[in-house]
């Protein structure tokens, strides 16, 4: 019998599989980057979106959204740090993307690691 984590992962993979191309391939690539960058995060569905949490019973820290635009977002449950510089006390929380290249993969990995470190 599959574990809760295995069931949750299957739900996320199914959600990604139901997306139209090219978004399906892009979002699957981002999913792979997230689980590689933070292997301790557990994939699950959170408010209908693929998401990643510390466990099956804790709030999601990172979500993937597929609306008018695709985006990676940090939820309010993640530890935030003010941006500083020109952004002052603003806290970055969402990044939109239309494609994923190597540089974007690296930045996504950095963002996700910053949430779990």
From TrEMBL:
Domain of life the protein comes from: Bacteria
Pfam families recorded: DUF1801 (PF08818)
Species whose genome carries this gene: Gordonia phthalatica
Protein name, per record: YdhG-like domain-containing protein
Domain named YdhG-like: residues: 23-114
Origin organism lineage: Bacteria, Bacillati, Actinomycetota, Actinomycetes, Mycobacteriales
């Amino acid at each position: 019998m599959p574990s809760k984590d295995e069931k949750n992962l299957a739900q996320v993979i199914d959600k990604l599989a139901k997306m139209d191309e090219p978004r399906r391939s892009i979002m699957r690539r981002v999913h792979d980057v997230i689980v590689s960058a933070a292997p301790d995060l557990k994939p699950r569905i959170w408010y209908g979106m693929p998401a990643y949490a510390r466990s099956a019973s804790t709030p999601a820290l990172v979500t993937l959204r597929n609306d008018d635009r695709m985006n990676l977002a940090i939820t309010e449950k993640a530890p935030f740090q003010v941006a500083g510089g020109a952004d002052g006390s603003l806290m970055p929380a969402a990044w939109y993307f239309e494609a994923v290249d190597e540089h974007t993969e690296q930045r996504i990995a950095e963002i996700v690691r910053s949430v779990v470190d």
